[in-house]
Each structure stands twice: as C-alpha cells, then as structure tokens.
Amino acid sequence: MVPRCNHYGDLVCPPNLPPVDEVQKIISRYKVGMVLVVEHKNPPKPQSLQESSSIEHELNVKARRLSDILLTLERESLSRGYRFATGFSAGDCTYCDKCVGTGEECSPPFQCKTFYGRHGHRRSWNIGKCGH
Q: 3-state class of 52 per DSSP?
C-alpha cells in the first residue's frame, strides 16, 4: 500500500477537493489559459535535520512568492472583467505553518492556491496541448 501524502486532509488537498470530473467540466469551459513558469535551483540534499528545516523554509518562501504572483494576476484579471480568473500553484499551500484541515475554516482562504495535479490533471500533457 502506498503511504498517504503528509498533506492529505489539508483544505486544498484530497479529500477536500471536488471530484475530478467536476473540475474537468469547469476547466473545459475556459477558452484561454496562461502557463507561468518560475524557475529556481533546488537546494542541495540536506545533511542534517536542522539543514532540512532551513531548506524547507527556503522552498516555502519561493512557493509563497509564486502564490503572490498568481494572486496579483488574478486580481488584475478580475479588475479587467475576467470573472473566472483563477490560478493553480505548484506544491503545497505555504501561508500557514500547519493547515487547520478537514472541517475547519481556512484563515487566508483567498490566498491559498491548490496544486494543479491534485485535480487529476497532468501538467506535461496539458502544456503539450498548448504547443510547448
């Protein structure tokens, strides 16, 4: 049996997401999309627990920067009349140290971005369909 992800039960992770077919139905209504790629070098493999914590913090800062960029793009799109503008992140939500989880209310609900792949989509296949 495959072990569960550490984030299973977080508010933007299974089982707290709509069914895949429902998400596919919603996404199929979009006619235009944009792929934003932010590159960064992965830090070296940690040699100690303390180093691991430092690297995790560094990655969370980078993930939060990406979420902030997505929020700015969403806000600008909404102000220009694109009512259904939404962004998907790459990775876990990093706005709280620990997600409150199933049955609780998210403290930054409009900042939290869910990972595209958690909705049953394969990035490489969809980006390939866009001609990249």
A: helix
